[in-house]
Design brief:
The complex is a heterodimer of chains A (344) and B (276). Chain A has 16 helices and no strands. By secondary structure, chain A is mostly helical. Chain B has one domain: MetI-like (MetI-like fold). At the A-B interface, helix 2, helix 3, helix 8, helix 9 and helix 13 of A face helix 5, helix 6, helix 10 and helix 12 of B.
Chain lengths: 344, 276
């Protein structure tokens, strides 16, 4: 009996040394999956461009009340944004710019978009990764405890807390945390991220605690829930029953057999939540004034800064597509049965 | 098909999560609907200095308006927009999902690929994209944006549910009888999907409330100056230290509301999962 037990006996036989046809089938699958990812990204670019540039009137949105009073500024902006050209031409110029790194200039301050978003992408990536690193063990831990006490009081209390946390919008969680830890009840943690002089936000680790905690509370319930139900499924299976009958202690059963088998569904839901985090940071960063792409996106939307919004939206969509791709590949690699299914 | 038989009612009554969620949801919804008549002051009445404890028990906000009155006044817009957005998202999503599952083939493949693209956008991002090009959003625009951002997610769920139904014998026999495809969908497929879809609707309502209030919180006001839970948070945010209730009151009400709708959705899902 192996640690990573599978119920299909033929699958274990096929795993150790895959013959060449399986390898090429695997490559074919990967190529198809990559092609789909590229197609998705391209359609995303169409959506981003047309939602921002073609639906409304950019010049009117940028100028606001000045639109009616100063026709010369209207003309200047129209020329700057090249709005006199047909929308299809503008789309392909923009798409070409994305590939060559020529991302255009911010309407708000005339600086190149690339230099404005670079640091912010790093800051957001750090926030998301730290949150994920905290969230994964927490969620698996909660799921283990919950599965261990299945049907008992501890389990149902955890369930209720999880459903409550899952229902709360992230800004509600964030504001309540701020009220409890920094403004109203206690005064122990900073309420906003202040790192002066362009220093990265993690140079003041205390200011990252509340944003990370908010994201963890927003995401952990979903992961814990999926992991718990796959744990329970494994715990009810025949081979776990056999391990128990052999006299393997329950703790070892839980750790070795159940937890390892919950990894694959875990990867899927973690990927989904990571991708969600890429969008969830928008509100959390705005709330904590964290200098990342989310806060930047809100500002750019308010200023109708199209070039910024387009690049930031493409970044978030790109993260989502890549994370999902990686998750699919990983879960295939971790599931012998799926590997053989591709091969045959 | 009557859902409210005594036996079913007893089963619903035994579902504690569902009952708790339902009670919370109804109480908050009633508060949002009846609130404007109970408010001690008008939503724009100045009752004292800004951010002080004048006015009724929750003090005053950034302009000196009464926080408690504005909490009572500010639920209607969120409730209406969220419910309409949920309805829109459910109707569009179910239509896409059921048609994809029932017709199948390349149409199914195509619809679901396009759906994947829509899913690559975090929901709030779709709303923000369009708000970039809009000077001042109107309330129906928020309904459209939130509703449409739900549709691909609902479509995926309802396609999954419908796939399990379209291959059943009663669908095949209805087709054999020569009924039109539209009638098969309306009379045979949809009525058998209602329990999982009801749970999905509850979940979507939870997210709608979060998103509608979130858009207000980000400062995209549909009706500046009017009382609105999301906008109130944004207006009074800077005074969290001095007068926390201007922010905490709407935050807590929104929180209770979403917890209620989420409990309700979870209860329905449990009922549905136990076999109907």
């Amino acid at each position: 009996m192996t640690d990573l037990a599978t119920s299909a006996p033929d699958a274990t036989a096929a795993t150790p040394a895959r013959p060449t046809p399986a390898g090429s089938a695997w490559l074919k699958w990967l190529a198809r999956r990559l092609g789909l990812a590229v197609l998705t990204l391209w359609l995303c670019s169409v959506l981003v461009f047309f939602a921002t540039a073609a639906l409304g009137d950019p010049v009117r949105a940028i100028l606001g009340k000045d639109y009616a009073t100063s026709p010369e500024r209207v003309a200047a902006l129209t020329a700057q944004l090249r709005l006199d050209e047909p929308v299809i031409t503008r789309y392909f110029q923009w798409l070409g710019g994305l590939f060559t790194g020529n991302l255009g200039e911010s309407v708000a301050n005339g600086l190149p978009v690339g230099s404005l978003v670079g640091d912010r992408i790093v800051n957001s990536a750090v926030l998301v990764l730290v949150s994920a690193l905290v969230m994964i063990p927490v969620a698996f831990g909660i799921a283990l405890v919950s599965a261990n006490f299945r049907g008992k009081r501890t389990d149902s209390v955890i369930q209720i807390i999880m459903i409550t946390a899952a229902g709360l919008p992230e800004f509600v969680v964030g504001i309540l945390l701020v009220a409890v830890f920094s403004t109203t009840l206690l005064h122990v943690l900073p309420a906003v991220t202040i790192a002066g002089g362009g220093a990265p936000p993690w140079s003041k680790p205390a200011s990252m605690i509340l944003p990370v905690l908010t994201l963890v509370i927003a995401v952990a319930p979903y992961v814990a829930r999926i992991v718990r139900s796959s744990l329970l499924e494994v715990l009810d299976s025949d081979y776990v029953e056999l391990a128990r009958l052999k006299g393997v202690p329950e703790r070892v059963v839980l750790r070795k057999h159940a937890l390892l088998n919950a990894i694959v569904p875990g990867i899927q839901v973690i990927a989904l939540q990571l991708a969600w985090l890429a969008g969830g940071v928008v509100i959390v960063e705005y709330l904590f004034s964290y200098p990342g792409i989310g806060a930047s996106l809100v500002d750019s939307v308010r200023n109708s800064d199209f070039p910024m919004v387009q690049v930031l939206a493409m970044t978030i969509a790109g993260v989502y597509v890549v994370v999902n791709l990686v998750a699919d590949v990983l879960s295939i690699l971790f599931t012998p049965r799926a590997r053989t299914a591709i091969a045959s | 098909m009557n859902v409210l038989t005594p036996a079913n009612l007893r089963r619903i009554g035994n579902q504690r999560r569902l009952v708790t969620g339902l009670v919370i949801t109804v109480v908050i919804a009633l508060m949002a609907i009846v609130g404007p008549w109970l408010a001690p002051y008008g939503e724009n009445d100045i009752v004292g200095k800004p951010f002080t404890h004048q006015g009724s028990w929750l003090g005053t906000d950034y302009l000196g308006q009464d926080v408690w009155s504005r909490v009572l006044d500010g639920g209607g817009s969120i409730l209406l927009i969220s419910v309409l957005a949920t309805l829109l998202g459910m109707v569009v999503g179910i239509m896409i999902g059921v048609v994809a599952a029932y017709i199948g083939g390349w149409l199914d493949e195509g619809i679901m690929r396009l759906n994947d693209v829509a899913l690559a956008f975090p929901q709030i991002l779709l709303a923000l994209l369009v708000l970039t090009a809009v000077d001042q959003p109107s309330w129906w625009m928020i309904v459209l944006l939130v509703g449409i951002s739900h549709a691909p997610r609902v479509a995926r769920v309802s396609r999954g549910v419908a796939l399990g139904i379209v291959s059943r014998d009663y669908v095949t026999s209805a087709e054999a009888l020569g009924e039109s495809r539209l009638r098969v969908i309306l009379a045979e497929v949809l009525p058998n999907m209602n329990a999982p879809l009801l749970a999905e609707a509850g979940l979507r309502l939870t997210y709608s409330i979060g998103m509608v209030a979130g858009i207000g919180f980000l400062g995209f006001a549909t009706n500046p100056g009017a009382a609105d839970w999301g906008q109130m948070i944004n207006e009074n945010r800077l005074a969290l230290l001095v007068q926390p209730w201007g922010v905490l009151a709407p935050v807590i009400v929104i929180g209770i509301f979403t917890v209620g709708t989420n409990l309700m959705a979870d209860g329905i899902a449990q009922l549905a999962g136990r076999g109907d």
